[in-house]
Amino acid sequence: MNLLRQLWFLFWLHVARLLDRACGFAVVMAISTPVTFTWSQAILTGATFNPLADWQYETPDFPGMIEVLSRATAVGLLETISSAGETLKQESPVQAGGTAGTTPARLNTEPVTGRAAPLQKIRVFYRNPTAGTITVDGQITLTPLGGGGGGGRGRAAPRRGGRFGRRR
After folding, report:
1. Which of 69, 75, 145, 158 is the most exposed place for a label (fewest CB within 10 A)?
2. DSSP 111
């Protein structure tokens, strides 16, 4: 299914480039600003949770950087983070001490950062091996690389003094 999705994307990318060359249409393929997704979920004993399962940017079509913040209400919850087949965080404990329903902040939660490759899944996975229910609160921020698809041309500041510099 993933291969079919990649081929479909490449087909439309090719069509967009042909339209751009032939007609001068500017086709924007990526976002230009960071996007954020937050979650809060109670995970039962022995259960797992993948917060990005229905997220629009779980498989981005542009290169980017991700930053994940996670905090649990109790000790024992395990987290694995991967992007583009690379493990950013091997299964290890999630920081405990949070209040259910509050988004973790950078002030007291160390973020996990890494690259997001085009057409490759970002995966955040939680597993609860403990004997009780644990609530996890988290946030992911996906920032496009390479300027994104809009927001101007990034012009330099105008020079002073005319075309040939300042005359004295």
Report:
1. 158
2. P
Q: Is the pLDDT score of 134 beyond 80? A: yes
| Nearest-angstrom CA–CA distance, 4 and 113 | 29
Q: pLDDT exceeding 70 applies to what percent of the chain?
A: 70
Global model pTM greater than 0.85? no
Distance, CA of 94 to CA of 74 (rounded, Å): 9
Of these ranges, 11-15, 34-38, 144-148, the one predicted with the greatest mean pLDDT is 34-38
- Among 68, 59, 61, 49, smallest CA distance to 122 is for 59
> Could you please report the per-residue DSSP string of 22-84?
HH------S-SS-EEEEEEEEE-TT-EE-TTTT-TTSS-SS-EEEEEEEEESSTT-EEEEEET
